[in-house]
Amino acid sequence: MIAEVLTDTGARMAKAVEVAKEDFAGVRTGRANPQMFQKVIVSYYGTPTPLAQLAGMQNIEARTIVVTPYDKGALRDIENAIRDVPNLGANPTNDGSVIRVTLPELTEERRKEYVKLVRTKGEDAKVAVRNIRRKAKEELDALKSEVGEDDVARGEKELEALTKSHTDAIDEALKRKEAELLEI
């Protein structure tokens, strides 16, 4: 029973860490990266569709990405969706078959804003992990009558170690992203 709760909790915490890393990847640095466009949603014939399903993306230069739509009819919609992405500052150009997205150089002030944004996302991820811990602790407390207080206490210690390892993983990813953002 306790092992099942801890296994399930570990899987949910690992998913929270992965989501945090994906969020960090979505914040742009000085270099162009196709992952920045993972959360771009395009209105494709009235249906919200992720950009990755509509086009291939290539990083051809340090600050330029070429988006090649699978359907040329979606070119204008993709271009508008990229232009409307907040915190990107990109101005896509369309040559009739591909879209070139050139990202402007980041200023020091903008880099600091992105660091604040990433720290906020990191804190949100840690809150998510703590919420998962709280729910697991409630589940463990409900098992006290079935398995005994000693086993539940051991389970809670394991839960704390699990929580610490996942928050440390978020902190490590946050540190790497901050260093990447501040790198010129």
From TrEMBL:
**InterPro entries, per the entry:** Ribosome_recyc_fac (IPR002661), Ribosome_recyc_fac_dom (IPR023584), RRF_sf (IPR036191)
Q: Which organism is it from?
A: Mycetocola tolaasinivorans
Domain Ribosome recycling factor: where? Answer: 21-182
Family annotation (PANTHER family): MITOCHONDRIAL RIBOSOME RECYCLING FACTOR PSEUDO 1, RIBOSOME RECYCLING FACTOR
Q: Which CDD domains match?
A: RRF
Q: Where in the cell is it found?
A: Cytoplasm
Q: Which gene encodes it?
A: frr
A GO molecular function annotation here is: ribosomal large subunit binding
Q: Which SUPFAM superfamilies match?
A: Ribosome recycling factor, RRF (SSF55194)
Report the sequence similarity comment from the record. Answer: Belongs to the RRF family.
Q: Name one GO biological process term.
A: translational termination
Superkingdom of source? Bacteria
UniProtKB keywords = Cytoplasm, Protein biosynthesis
Query: Which cellular component terms (GO) are annotated to the entry?
Result: cytoplasm
- Identification of the protein by name: Ribosome-recycling factor
| Predominant location | cytoplasm
Q: What is the role of this chain?
A: Responsible for the release of ribosomes from messenger RNA at the termination of protein biosynthesis. May increase the efficiency of translation by recycling ribosomes from one round of translation to another.
